[in-house]
Design brief:
Helix content is 36%, strand content 13%. The protein contains eight helices and eight strands; from the N terminus they run H-H-H-H-H-E-E-E-E-E-E-H-H-E-E-H.
């Protein structure tokens, strides 16, 4: 395995040394976590030329709008660290391997037209402003909600996502679902009993 730059925000070496591959210290085997760590071990690293030649792929406009010093507000990875080698159009007969960077405008789904888990005078109040995040962080939000059975109109904030992911440069995130569950419980507790004075 190639060693990562010490200044990057990636935690693969920490995960491999701190915990066994099969669990996150819980003593419970997690096959998804194990598969992600093994996939990250074998990931491909882009050259500087490949990075400079990459045009943003299917996220071209968002990618080009980001400055060179931009970092994902959740995982803190740079544009270079987001480049990931993967199968493009995997269900298509014309599939091929190549570099990708996925970017999404992350927003609070409670403020969607039919949302409204928490409201102020009948209108859903967003907990955070829309922000561009990487596809791995956006996927972590979705995966945590699905696995934990959380309401569709609940959205983790970028800071909350940061608390339950272990990012890897040019790879895939590992998600700590128990931390995500704690984040959601704290959110519910903060909204449960409104106080009026």
């Amino acid at each position: 395995m190639k060693s990562l730059d010490a200044s990057c925000s990636c935690h693969l070496d920490f995960l491999i040394n701190q915990f066994c591959i099969a669990c996150d210290g819980s003593k419970i085997r997690n096959k998804d976590r194990e598969a992600t760590i093994l996939r990250n071990r074998d990931r491909k690293f882009p050259t500087q030329i490949e990075y400079l030649e990459f045009d943003g792929g299917h996220c071209k406009q968002k990618y080009k709008s980001l400055t060179e010093d931009w970092r994902c507000p959740c995982c803190n990875r740079t544009k270079f660290q987001l480049l990931r080698w993967t199968m493009r159009f995997p269900k298509s007969p014309s599939r091929f391997e190549g570099w990708v960077v996925g970017l999404h405008t992350h927003h609070d789904h409670a403020s969607d037209a039919y949302g409204g888990m928490y409201t102020f005078q009948g209108a859903a109040a967003a907990r955070f402003a829309p922000v561009i995040i990487c596809e791995q962080c956006n996927s972590a939000d979705s995966s945590a909600k699905k696995k934990l059975g959380l309401p569709e109109n609940f959205t983790f904030t970028p800071v909350e996502i940061k608390s339950f992911i272990y990012p890897t440069a040019h790879g895939w995130h590992i998600i700590n679902y128990s931390v995500a569950q704690d984040v959601y419980r704290k959110f519910v507790a903060s909204k449960a009993v409104p106080k009026f004075f």
